[in-house]
Design brief:
With 406 residues, this protein is an alpha+beta fold. The chain has four domains: 74 residues, Uridine Diphospho-n-acetylenolpyruvylglucosamine Reductase, domain 2, CATH 3.30.43; 119 residues, 2-Layer Sandwich (Uridine Diphospho-n-acetylenolpyruvylglucosamine Reductase, domain 3), CATH 3.30.465.10; 72 residues, Alpha-Beta Plaits (2-Layer Sandwich), CATH 3.30.70.260; 104 residues, Alpha-Beta Plaits (2-Layer Sandwich), CATH 3.30.70.240. It has eleven helices and 19 strands. A hairpin with a 3-residue loop joins strand 17 and strand 18.
């Protein structure tokens, strides 16, 4: 972006104060302007202004994933923290409508009053907001049973770069009218439109959750059991593999009624493979943000489900000078943390990216790690550029994310 001069910055700030209460507008040190609208209409007015003045805008929620697809400094940082209300909860229909600035934990706490929840376990749930989670398409081990975020969102209210307010999807699960733009906007990192409200399908809170873990010297020892579990009729809510240099653990969350005695069946399956099942009292093993540490490099990798165990074992042998911890879903998604030499980590990520049937996305680079966040094949990139031009022809939103637009 071109840097705003001090007089220009002051003039834009004053003009924005005519649109919005001055209390919620302030210049910040990096040369951009922080703006905190209070509703969808104010978001629309701000984007209309930015579009007329050709000013770039970067929407943000709780700030937990600012480095994911980190772009260039925008002219306006559009914070959505004031859009933090649950707008509608027809609990009998198992749906809800919520503003984008609502934190995930506060939303789930309210839904729990009716013994319901959104079946998603994003990172940093106490600070991450609905809009930010949608923009980054974050999901965890609950995907094993309930599907990903795109399967749970059924509608959105969004504001296009020219200020147009649009609605996609609906408030009921069986809504099939029109284009399903909700799936397109999920994971778009705020580059296509600003999400201000979202409609979700809900599920009943499990009443009988028990968590088990199985330790092994490596993940390959767990491979056959994982296959058996996925083919079984056990009522599993989550299935994940944790791996570090010394050992591997398979974590299993069962939600069946005790009378079904599925824990006994699970124990028998483990014993048949020469493994020992251990019940643990808390589900802390499924808290995804625990492995995150300051200065680590965070990468998300996808592989074929049949390759999960072999891949996480392979990770432990790619470099001797760096520490690698991974948390993997049985469906083939891996959250991987690297700690050590930036040059070594860069080399490892480059080698992994060139492997067959593997997709690597750099989400948070550590110190001295120099590698591209997204390696998008040319045909896919051309489609992404075409979609970007259709939604945001003047390159207003999310400057520098995914690619530098022309």
């Amino acid at each position: 972006m071109f840097t705003l001069s001090a007089p220009k910055l002051q003039a834009i700030t004053e003009e924005l104060r005519e649109i919005l209460d001055g209390e919620f507008i302030s210049p910040i040190e990096d040369g951009s302007i922080s703006v905190l609208p209070g509703d969808t209409q104010q978001v629309s007015l701000i984007l209309q202004y930015a579009s007329r003045r050709r000013l770039t805008v970067d929407p943000r929620g709780g700030g937990t994933k600012l480095r994911w697809a980190n772009g260039s400094v925008p002219h306006i940082r559009l914070g959505l923290s004031r859009l933090n209300r649950l707008l509608d909860h027809p609990w009998q229909d198992l749906t809800c409508t919520v503003q984008a600035g609502c934190t995930w934990t506060s939303l789930q706490q309210y839904l729990a009053r009716h013994e319901q929840f959104i079946a998603l376990d994003p990172l940093f749930a106490d600070r991450a907001t609905v809009g930010g989670i949608l923009a980054t398409n974050d999901s965890g081990s609950l995907r094993q049973r309930y599907g990903g975020l795109r399967d749970l969102v059924i509608g959105m209210t969004l504001v296009l770069s020219d200020g147009t307010i649009a609605r996609t999807g609906g408030k009921v699960v069986k809504n099939v009218a029109g284009y399903d733009l909700s799936k397109l906007l999920t994971g778009s990192m705020g580059t296509l439109a600003v999400i201000t409200e979202a409609n979700f399908r809900l599920h009943a809170l499990p009443q009988h959750t028990r968590v088990f873990t199985i330790g092994a010297p490596d993940a390959t020892c767990l491979s056959r059991l994982i296959h058996i579990l996925r083919e079984s009729h056990l009522l599993m809510q989550a299935l994940q593999i944790r791996r570090n240099k010394s050992e591997a653990h398979l974590d299993i969350s069962l939600t069946s009624h005790p009378a079904a005695q599925q824990d006994e069946l699970l124990s028998q399956m483990a014993q048949a493979e020469g493994l020992v099942l251990q019940e643990i009292n808390e589900a802390s093993c499924f808290i995804r943000d625990r492995p995150h540490a300051e200065g680590s490099t965070f990468v998300r990798i996808s592989t074929l489900p049949v390759d999960v165990c072999a891949f996480v074992d392979q990770l432990q042998h790619v470099a001797q000078k760096i520490d690698i911890d991974s948390v993997s879903q049985a469906i083939g998604l891996h959250d991987v943390m690297f700690r050590g030499s930036g040059d070594e980590i860069t080399k490892v990520i480059h080698n992994l990216s060139s492997g067959p049937s593997i997709s690597v996305v750099m989400l948070e680079p550590g110190p001295d790690v120099d590698t591209q966040a997204f390696r998008v094949p040319a045909p896919v990139m051309s489609v992404m550029r075409a979609v970007k031009r259709s939604f945001d022809p003047d390159d207003i939103l999310g400057p520098g994310k995914f690619f530098v637009t022309q």
